[in-house]
Amino acid sequence: MLGESAIEVLSRLDASLVGVVVPTNRTGPDVERVKDAARRSGVAVLAQPGRTRLERFLEHLKALSPDIIVVWSYSMILPLEIIKLPRLGCINLHGGILPEYRGGHVMQWAIINGETETGVTLHYIDESIDTGPIIAKSEFPIGVDDDGVSVQKKLGESGVALLSEWWQKIIEQTAPKLLQDDAVAHYYRLLTPDDGLIDWRWTSVEICNRVRALVSPRPGAFTFLGANKVTVHRAKHCKKTMTGIAVAAPGIVQRVSEDGLLVVTGDGAVNITEFEINDGVVASSKEFSGFEIKPGSLFTNAPVV
Question: Are residues 138 and 253 in the same domain?
């Protein structure tokens, strides 16, 4: 749990907190802000242990004697010893709707899949991944202009509100424990940088969803122009296409203008309005001509030397 959401939770649960665990596999301003906020509140700060170094961490955790453990955006599966430690159990703020979206990076997968809504699920943790009894859910729409950044912000706000709403009932042990329906469950794997590769045979909507889901700080959706890697930051599905677009090969640039690059897809076209070549300068639509991209240029799924 990082960023504004983490700071907000720390402030709301300040009187109840005895410790905060921060990641060791992630660094940056968000991590440091959480550490600073915890220390200002007099809360112990523990570092996420390596998978083979649990024993000492568990000793520190036991010394804090927590009644409950709250997990949010924690990248390791909790060992059974930790799950059984707090008398009120461990709860997780999951960044997706359960049981349909179990696993990792489910917010991005929801956008990739073209979902029109997603949300946060508050649930108890058991030994499996995202399978514990559900306390409550908070759902919200994914707009056509939403991307990974804006949806992440909504997730943070919804998660803070959901935890605040149910916190007292969790402490009083009167919160619901609704069993999940495994028949509708689906596990999603963690995304890798290679998942950003655009297949121009996809539909225009599928390509735009991939671009939206993988905006920075994710590595991004990408393609190749000759030997150059092109990372697409912004693209829109075109409602109108140029004459002859249906017979052009997917990946061919149909038009270059101040409005963007019109590129053929499996069912029509997308308009790329912002991109980056070889992890260099980000180009807006008005700067396309400087990169010698012209009608007939072909985007491919591998470098062409």
Answer: no
